[in-house]
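Notes from the 1:1 (GR / supervisor)

We went over the backlog. Supervisor wanted to see one worked example end to end before approving the batch request, so GR pasted a single chain during the call. The sequence is below; no edits were made to it. Supervisor asked that the structure be written out right there so they could see what the output format looks like.
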Amino acid sequence: MYLRAIHAETSIKALFELIQQNPLGVLTTAIPSTTQHFIQSSHIPWVLDIISDDSDAPVKGRLRGHMARQNPHSKTFIEALNAAGLPSASPLQQEVQVLFTTNTHHYVTPKFYTETKPATAKVVPTWNYAAVQVYGKAKIYHDSSAPETSEYLQKQIQDLSELSETSIMGYTGEGGRPDSWKVAEAPERYIDIMKKNIIGIEITIEDIGGKFKMSQESTKGDRDGVIQGFENLGTELGRDMAALVRERGEMKDAGKK
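Structure output shown during the call:
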């Protein structure tokens, strides 16, 4: 990821918060295979276990996820472990990457630049967005007969379901809201069958970086134009974008970026 200093987010805590608020990440790998593509990507919802928000910590956290056993990505993982003579619950030799992005992103038209465009016309379109990239080693749980695989998958799907039900759906059982759905509500035998059709993925976060590209590089006059332009769209996304551009602009002006 290209990280201009003016856009880079240096707080590990802030990057972790972005992941927690946007848990659907794109896992990308480059693993040799005799049957599958060398480069593969899969969209996976993740549970984040935070270990440390110290940028110097060798392991900053863990991402826990799962994917269908029939996914070509899964087949590549299992093939790679077998080729290396490694059992289930072993880490892959290759580094992996996971990319997270926010739902709040938008095209920025040059018409928003109310200071520079009238003065020089030296403006071009861009796109505002926020993203985090994680790098680390992935441990693959694929032996459905192994107790450690069953235990890992049981905890992972329970934690992911609880996270999604409460944080995303708001099903907390409080304030008149519905209670969250629990894995225990499904027949145990059915869950056991489902677990045999997925593999577990646990990634140790060894490196993490991210950015909030929200017009910080623009002059204050142009940023004000971008804020007004987004607000004038009259949409929820436009209002969210305006708020982020304002927030990041104020951080820049305060010397935090």
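Supervisor's comment: The chain has a mean pLDDT of 95.
Batch request approved.
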